[in-house]
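Below is a filled-in request sheet from our internal design queue. Each sheet records the structural input a requester submitted and the sequence that came back. We keep these sheets so that new team members can see what a complete request looks like end to end.

REQUESTER: design group, bay 2
PRIORITY: normal
MODE: inverse folding
CHAIN LENGTH: 127
BACKBONE (tokenized):
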């Protein structure tokens, strides 16, 4: 999304949890954003420029999470559970609290959509 890996279409890790049919993660995310009835993330801006992103969605929409055997022992079947998959902050704004702002926005967004819980677990997706 930001920085030197932005030109790599596979650099969008959060999209890997969706298990889409598109060969390019960036294209898959763009399609998802355009087609979504409910926005799939939050963007933090400074002076109208995007400086950070977090994906926050119902956990049920992430087969890479719900079908993960390692996470299965901690995840209860809860259709109202939401999940944060990633935080991306532009390099020049790292350490400035942008992730905290994004997490607060994610909590508010999930609560607004009646989430029973909001979780996220550091996890490298399998390719």
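RETURNED SEQUENCE:
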């Amino acid at each position: 999304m930001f920085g030197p890996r932005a030109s790599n279409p596979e650099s969008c890790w959060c999209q890997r949890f969706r298990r889409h049919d598109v060969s390019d993660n960036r294209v898959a995310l763009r399609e998802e954003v355009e087609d979504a009835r409910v926005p799939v993330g939050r963007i933090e801006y400074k002076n109208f420029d995007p400086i950070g992103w977090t994906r926050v969605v119902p956990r049920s929409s992430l087969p890479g999470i719900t079908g993960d055997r390692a996470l299965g022992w901690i995840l209860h079947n809860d259709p109202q559970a939401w999940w944060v998959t990633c935080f991306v902050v532009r390099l020049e704004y790292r350490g400035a609290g942008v992730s905290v702002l994004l997490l607060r926005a994610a909590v508010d967004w999930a609560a607004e959509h009646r989430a029973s819980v909001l979780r996220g677990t550091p996890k490298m997706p399998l390719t």
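SHEET NOTES:
- Residues 98-112 form the longest helix (15 residues).
- The chain has four helices and four strands.
FILED BY: M.R.
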